[in-house]
Amino acid sequence: MNKKLAAALSGGAVLVLTLSGCSDDSDDKVNDWAKKVCDQVQPQLQKIADANASIQQQTADNSKPADVQKTDSAAFQQISQAYKSLGAAVDSAGPPPVDDGETTQKEAVKELNASSTAYAGLKTKVDALETKDQAKFADGLKGIADELNKISTSGDQALKKLQSGEVGAAMSKQKGCQKPAPSTGPASPGGSAAPEAGAATPSEEKKA
Question: For bias kind Low complexity, which ranges apply (predicted)?
């Protein structure tokens, strides 16, 4: 019953994990800015990857609704807090030293904070699900998965802009902004959660 939710998460919950390394000629100021942000980003990306993995691992058909609810609630709370911290990290770094850097920064912070609020809302909805009736619980989870898909596939244009061009190239070189593997639980199936997180991005770009 939790499989759709897990699929939705792995499809694009971690919006900031779309970076890929590439050569560039970014100047020192841009590289310094990227390092400043990415050093703060890594712990939060790790929290998101771990939360994602915990939901992935709670996908067995015989999982008890109460256990699924507890796992998903804790995961959404963790992701919400991580996005809030990511927004604070980008905000505290100041505007990137590129054209239109201030606008790009402000839009990215706004988007990260919005994602934090959205995941907090999902936690509230999971907490309110009826766990004694498995059919009702499954229906509730389906609705949450649909909402999660919307969060993951819309409204991430500001982050894509932040990760494009000179700034994106500089960020992609920083270890702190690269995809972390989940630090808890077995490598499979949960371990696949983080690397898949950015998989939906190319198709999203086509839609944009």
Answer: 180-202
